[in-house]
Amino acid sequence: MRHSNRLQLDAALWGVLIGLGLAIAIAACASQSRSATVAGMDARKQEIQELWNKIRQDRLDNGMSADPLLDLRRPDIMQNSVAKIRQCPPDDSPPKTERCADVCGLKDSICDNAERICGIADKLGDDDWAREKCTSAKASCKEATEKCCGCLADEKPAAAPTGAGTGSAVH
Question: Is the pTM of the predicted complex or chain greater than 0.85?
């Protein structure tokens, strides 16, 4: 009996050791494949990802959702360059208030990063992932531009009502 129990114990111990060895091997392979994927990622795509993450962080830091709320298929986003999207009306003047300076500074940061993302995406050609990041970045630029232009419009003095201050009161 004693010999039989010892054989069972040895077999169980070997089973545990083999299982542990397999678990370590699987974990090591999984770890290597993950770091190989990150290391093997095209440096240009890594830059796109970093810039896109900056845009998302800028949005979150300024009370916006992480991702743009605009329909990314809108023609004004899909067909226009970042340079065109980021423009306020032609009569735009520099911000007069700190609030608008902050809002327009956010626009500049987001749109600058969007331009860089789209420039890299253009160099990558028909890369769908890069195109999607460009479109998302352009939508973020569009939203930030709308906020900046709206703030600048609110800063402009309201036109005086017609007839005000003429002293022609009816008695």
Answer: no
